[in-house]
Design a protein that fits this description.
The protein is α/β, with parallel strands linked by helices. 37% of the residues lie in helices and 20% in strands. Pathway: Quinol/quinone metabolism; menaquinone biosynthesis.
Length: 271
């Protein structure tokens, strides 16, 4: 998708490739498409690293744990990203037993997660002292028994089904344990891009955020019409209130805490 640029903060070179996360929490960042020249590349958090390696992105949201390893070549764009304090509302572990009873349990993990799956491993191992069982990707929506970690749209939809008596919010679990926000992703760009382009892109993110907050219901309704999810507009607007999009000092502390605690490898997927 290509749009024309119109900004008082310089210009992003026409045709720059920008990662597009189409999931519900990211709606506020894509409300400025009518005034920017982004060539949107649809992707999910788990697919960004391969796109970066292939040279297919110039600007993109990026899982915080990926940025830890790529930050020499990818610089953050201001304080933009996505974080949640105390309650995430869309990063949820569903099960028929309390989280403290999931010792060595098999868990289905949605394909999209990069950071949240490591949050889950840290919680199970270090907070609850549990063993990690065999985990698998590709959640079977028709399976109502296997515990599952779902994020974003899938988490919202599973809540609506009401099939699992125990729903652990990873934001709440982490806050009770560490007392810091979880920063699931940050906006980043290639470090070799000109500084004026980076500044212009940051200004466009700010403009998108401002447009969203001027009329959140309109933005959410337009997204639902485009992508066809079933949640109520009001519930999604309420969900967005759980998130910080401009990361403050407490989020920076959270990023550093995540760097110290989160595993690089996911034990549940080990062969």
């Amino acid at each position: 998708m290509m749009m024309q640029s119109n900004t008082d903060h310089g210009q992003v070179k026409e045709g720059r490739s920008v990662g597009h996360f189409p999931s519900i929490p990211w709606i506020p960042y894509y409300c400025n498409q009518s005034t920017c020249s982004w060539n949107l590349v649809r992707c999910e958090s788990s697919g960004v690293r391969s796109l970066v390696t292939a040279g297919r992105l110039d600007f993109t949201p990026m899982a915080t744990v990926d940025w830890f390893e790529l930050k020499e070549d990818w610089e953050r764009i201001g304080g933009w990203g996505i974080a949640f304090k105390k309650v995430a509302g869309s990063v949820l572990l569903f099960s028929h037993r309390p989280i403290s009873d999931l010792d060595a349990a098999p868990i289905a993990i949605c394909d999209e997660t990069t950071t949240s799956v490591r949050i889950l491993q840290a919680l199970l191992q270090k907070k609850y002292g549990l063993r990690i069982g065999r985990w698998r990707r590709n959640v079977d929506v028709n399976d109502g028994e296997t515990p599952r970690l779902l994020i974003q749209n899938q988490a919202v939809e599973e809540v609506a089904r009401g099939r699992f008596p125990y729903v652990a919010d990873l934001g709440s679990e982490w806050w009770a344990w560490q007392g810091t926000p979880i920063v699931t992703a940050v906006w980043a760009c290639r470090a070799d891009l000109p500084g004026d382009e980076r500044a212009a892109f940051a200004a466009q993110l700010e403009c998108a955020s401002r447009r969203y907050h001027e009329a959140p219901e309109r933005a959410v309704k337009a997204h639902r019409e485009t992508f066809g999810w079933s949640a109520e507009v009001e519930s999604v607007v309420a969900l967005h209130r759980n998130f910080d999009y401009l990361l403050g000092r407490d989020c920076e502390v959270g990023i550093e805490r995540m760097r110290q605690i989160l595993p690089q490898e996911v034990a549940g997927f080990a062969s």
